[in-house]
Design goal:
- With about 150 residues, the protein is of the alpha+beta class.
- It has 3 helices and 11 strands; from the N terminus they run αββββββββββααβ.
- The chain has a 6-stranded antiparallel sheet with strand order 1-2-3-10-5-8. The protein has a 5-stranded antiparallel sheet with strand order 7-6-9-4-11.
- Helix 2 packs antiparallel against helix 3.
- The longest helix is centred in the last third of the chain and has 14 residues.
- The chain is globular, with a radius of gyration of 15 Å.
- About 20% of the residues are buried.
- The N terminus is likely disordered.
């Protein structure tokens, strides 16, 4: 096996796994000279992320399985397998999964750096358990330039 294959296998191990989602990092900034990162996000039906925005990166969701419902600047978008959803930096958005099966998306974040959020989130879960204390979650989000709506 090549070094890249070994590296990829290591990164395919989920590093963030909370009660409703799982993330496997596929490419880090060190793999792409900082240009972008790639993660595989799996979420259980009926779960999602509340409205927020990213101040440091653009994100693109490439839907692999299931149905996601996105709210982007007040507009609702239903995204099924094969769809691509672009979320530029600074755009308010939220999403949830629909249907009865887990949903899977590849998420490209550019520039790279956001992939480490999931590692830090996983560490916080190990340290504090779920739900995370508000202060720990706020500190984590601030460190990565994520602003959640009140």
């Amino acid at each position: 096996m090549s070094q890249l294959a070994d590296h990829t296998m290591l990164l395919e191990s989920p590093i963030a796994n909370d009660s409703h989602s799982q993330v496997a990092v596929k490419l880090t900034g060190s793999d792409t000279d900082g240009a972008f990162s790639l993660v595989e996000y799996t979420s259980l039906p009926g779960t999602g992320v509340m409205q927020h925005m990213h101040t440091r990166e653009d994100k693109t969701f490439i839907i692999q399985a299931g149905i996601f419902e996105f709210w982007i600047n007040g507009e609702t978008i239903i995204a099924k397998q094969g769809a691509t959803v672009d979320l530029p930096m600074g755009v308010r958005h939220s999403f949830r999964t629909l249907g009865t099966s887990p949903c899977v998306a590849l998420i490209v974040a550019a520039p790279a750096g956001f992939e480490y959020y999931f590692h830090d989130f996983s560490d916080a879960i190990q340290q504090f358990g779920l739900p995370l204390p508000a202060a720990a979650l706020t500190q984590l989000n601030q460190a990565y330039g994520i602003i959640f709506e009140e």
